[in-house]
C-alpha cells in the first residue's frame, strides 16, 4: 500500500502551492488580525496627518536672441535643461523668493521655503514645472509663483550681467584703438604717406567691428522665459485620501497576516497537511470521516440509511479487505495517538459492523481495560450482558465474556467487552488473549482489537506482535508530527505494520470540555480503591509510559507460557 504515498510525493508544483496556501488559510484569526491592524493604521494615518495642497506652475526657458522673428532664429540653442533644473532649486532662487515673500510671509527661511519645492522637466521639452506643497491652498499658490518668478529674475540678471561684461570687454579693446586712430589722424595732417593712411584705415575697420559687436549685444532680447502656466490655488488636498489609505492599509495588513500565518505554520508542531501525515506515519490515508449532524452520541453509523459516515466506514473496510497485508492475517488493531479514545472506539465498532455486512465472522475485542465503556455505549444493540467471574480475578477476562452485537440491516458481530482489572499487563499478555487473536487465522473471520492510545499507555505495544496490522485514528489538528514518527518507530520495533490512517473531524473547544466533564463523572463511579481509569490509587501515569518502559514494557512470552 505504498502507491498513495508515492502519489503524494509526486505532486506537481502548483498542487504544492495550493496545499501551502490552504495551510495558511487555517489561521484565519491571524489573517483577520493583520487586516484589522492594517485598516486601523491606514485610518490613523488619514485622520492624524495634516492636509497638504500642491500648486503647480510651468516656465518655458529660452536664451537671449537678437531677432526672434528672423528666419531660422531659435531661442533654445545652448540650453542645458538639467543645469537649469538645478538652478531652479538653488539657494540663490530661494533667497530672491524669500525676499519677495518677506512682506506677506514674514520669517520664512530659505531652507524651509525650498523644502516644499519640486521642479521637474517633462520629457523632450524646455519646460520646468514648479510644484509647491504647503498647508493651505493660498500659501502653496503664493510660494510656487514666487519661486517661478525668482527663477526668471535670476536668469534675467545673469544674462544681463553676461552682456554687460562682454560690452565692457569690447569697450576696453576699443579705447586704445580709438586713441591710436586719433594719434594717426594728427600725424597724417602734415604728411601724405601711404603707410599712415593704411594704418589709419585698419584701425577704423577694427573700431567699426567692435562697435558693431557692442551694438548687437545691446540689442539682444534678454527675456529669460515665460510663465506658461500660472499657479492657481488647489481646490482639493493632495496625497492619499481616506479610501486609498484604507485600501493600502488592508493590503499591507493582509500581507502582515500572511507573514504571521507563515511563521505560525513553520513553528506549528501539528500535522500541516495530508502529505505530511502520510510521510510522518509511513502509511497511506485510508479515509477521512465526515462530520454528521445529529450523530452525536450514536456509536454505530452502519445501519443508518443515507449516512455519509457509514459509507466512509464501508469504503475503509473494503480497502482493508483487499489489502494484501491485512488479507493474509485478517487481524486489526485500532488505536489513537494519545488523549481521547472515543474516535478509535467508533472506528473499531463501525469497521466490525462493515466487515459483518460483508459476510465475515467478526470478533471485536475491547482491550481497553482502564476505561472500558464499549458495552455500555452500544446500549440495546448488545444482546445480553457479559458474565464475569469473581471480583479481583484477573483471569476472568476475557473468558466467558462474549456477547452478540446486532447491527440493523447489516448482521451481527461478536463482542468481547473489557472490564476494569488490577493487573492490565498480565491480562493483555495472557494465553486466552493470544488464542482469541489467533481466531483471525480461520477462513472468513476478522479479529479487531480496540486498544488504548498508543502514546498514553503501553497496552497497544503488548498486542502489536500478535495482531501486527494497526490502524491509527486521529484528528490531524491535534496530533503532532513527532507523535506520528514515534508511533511508526514503536509499531515497527514491536513487529507490527501501520496499515493506514483514518482521520476524523475534531470537536470544538466547548464540546471537548463537555466530554471531559462527562468522562470524569463517569470514571469517578468506579470500584472503591481505584482511580478514574480503573487502576490502583496513585498509579496514574503522568507522562508517556513508552518512554520509560520501552518496547519491553510487557513480557509477552511469559504471558503465552
UniProtKB/TrEMBL annotation:
Biased composition (Basic residues): 514-524
Transmembrane regions listed in the UniProt entry: 27-47
Comp. bias (Gly residues): 526-537
Keyword terms, alphabetized: Membrane, Transmembrane, Transmembrane helix
Domain of life: Bacteria
InterPro entries in alphabetical order: Bact_polysacc_biosynth/exp, P-loop_NTPase
Region (Disordered): 502-561
Protein name, per record: Lipopolysaccharide biosynthesis protein
Organism: Streptomyces yanii
Classification of source organism: Bacteria, Bacillati, Actinomycetota, Actinomycetes, Kitasatosporales
Amino acid at each position: 500500500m505504498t502507491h498513495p504515498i508515492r502519489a503524494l510525493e509526486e505532486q506537481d508544483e502548483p498542487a504544492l502551492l495550493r496545499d501551502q496556501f490552504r495551510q495558511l488559510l487555517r489561521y484565519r484569526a491571524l489573517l483577520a488580525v493583520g487586516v484589522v491592524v492594517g485598516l486601523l493604521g491606514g485610518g490613523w494615518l488619514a485622520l492624524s496627518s495634516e492636509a497638504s495642497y500642491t500648486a503647480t506652475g510651468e516656465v518655458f526657458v529660452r536664451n537671449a536672441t537678437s531677432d526672434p522673428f528672423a528666419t531660422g532664429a531659435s531661442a533654445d540653442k545652448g540650453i542645458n535643461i538639467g543645469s537649469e533644473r538645478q538652478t531652479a532649486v538653488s539657494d540663490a532662487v530661494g533667497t530672491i523668493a524669500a525676499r519677495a515673500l518677506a512682506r506677506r510671509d514674514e520669517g520664512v527661511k530659505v531652507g524651509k521655503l525650498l523644502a516644499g519645492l519640486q521642479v521637474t522637466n517633462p520629457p523632450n521639452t524646455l519646460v520646468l514645472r514648479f510644484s509647491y506643497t504647503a498647508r493651505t491652498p493660498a500659501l502653496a499658490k503664493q510660494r510656487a509663483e514666487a519661486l517661478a518668478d525668482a527663477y526668471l529674475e535670476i536668469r534675467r540678471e545673469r544674462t544681463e550681467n553676461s552682456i554687460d561684461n562682454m560690452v565692457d570687454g569690447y569697450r576696453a579693446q576699443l579705447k586704445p584703438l580709438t586713441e591710436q586712430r586719433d594719434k594717426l589722424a594728427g600725424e597724417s595732417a602734415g604728411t601724405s604717406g601711404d603707410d599712415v593712411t593704411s594704418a589709419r584705415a585698419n584701425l577704423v575697420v577694427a573700431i567699426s567691428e567692435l562697435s558693431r559687436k557692442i551694438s548687437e549685444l545691446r540689442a539682444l532680447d534678454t527675456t529669460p522665459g515665460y510663465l506658461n502656466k500660472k499657479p492657481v490655488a488647489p481646490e482639493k488636498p493632495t496625497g492619499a485620501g481616506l479610501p486609498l489609505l484604507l485600501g493600502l492599509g488592508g493590503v499591507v495588513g493582509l500581507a502582515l497576516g500572511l507573514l504571521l500565518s507563515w511563521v505560525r505554520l513553520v513553528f506549528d508542531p501539528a500535522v500541516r497537511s495530508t502529505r505530511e501525515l502520510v510521510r510522518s506515519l509511513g502509511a497511506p490515508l485510508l479515509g477521512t470521516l465526515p462530520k454528521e449532524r445529529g450523530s452525536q452520541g450514536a456509536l454505530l453509523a452502519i445501519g443508518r440509511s443515507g449516512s455519509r459516515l457509514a459509507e466512509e466506514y464501508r469504503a475503509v473496510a473494503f480497502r482493508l479487505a483487499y489489502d494484501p497485508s491485512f488479507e493474509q492475517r485478517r487481524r486489526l488493531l485500532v488505536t489513537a495517538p494519545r488523549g481521547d479514545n472515543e474516535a478509535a472506539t467508533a472506528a473499531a465498532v463501525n469497521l466490525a459492523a462493515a466487515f459483518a455486512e460483508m459476510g465475515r465472522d467478526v470478533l471485536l475485542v475491547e482491550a481497553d481495560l482502564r476505561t472500558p465503556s464499549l458495552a455500555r455505549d452500544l446500549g440495546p444493540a448488545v444482546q445480553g450482558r457479559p458474565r464475569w467471574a469473581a471480583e479481583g480475578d484477573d483471569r476472568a477476562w476475557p473468558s466467558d465474556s462474549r456477547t452478540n452485537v446486532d447491527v440493523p440491516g447489516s448482521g451481527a458481530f461478536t463482542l468481547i467487552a473489557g472490564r476494569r482489572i488490577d493487573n492490565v499487563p498480565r491480562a493483555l499478555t495472557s494465553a486466552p488473549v493470544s488464542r482469541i487473536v489467533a481466531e483471525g487465522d480461520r477462513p472468513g473471520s476478522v479479529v479487531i482489537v480496540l486498544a488504548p492510545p498508543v502514546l498514553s499507555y503501553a497496552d497497544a505495544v503488548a498486542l502489536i506482535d500478535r495482531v501486527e496490522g494497526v490502524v491509527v485514528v486521529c484528528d490531524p489538528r491535534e496530533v503532532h508530527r513527532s507523535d506520528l514518527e514515534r508511533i511508526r518507530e514503536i509499531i515497527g520495533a514491536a513487529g507490527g505494520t501501520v496499515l493506514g490512517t483514518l482521520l476524523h473531524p475534531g470537536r470544538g473547544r466547548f464540546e471537548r470540555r463537555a466530554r471531559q466533564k462527562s468522562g470524569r463523572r463517569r470514571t469517578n463511579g468506579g470500584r472503591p480503591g481505584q482511580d478514574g481509569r480503573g487502576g490502583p490509587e496513585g498509579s496514574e501515569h503522568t507522562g508517556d509510559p513508552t518512554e520509560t518502559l520501552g518496547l519491553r514494557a510487557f513480557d509477552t512470552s511469559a504471558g503465552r507460557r
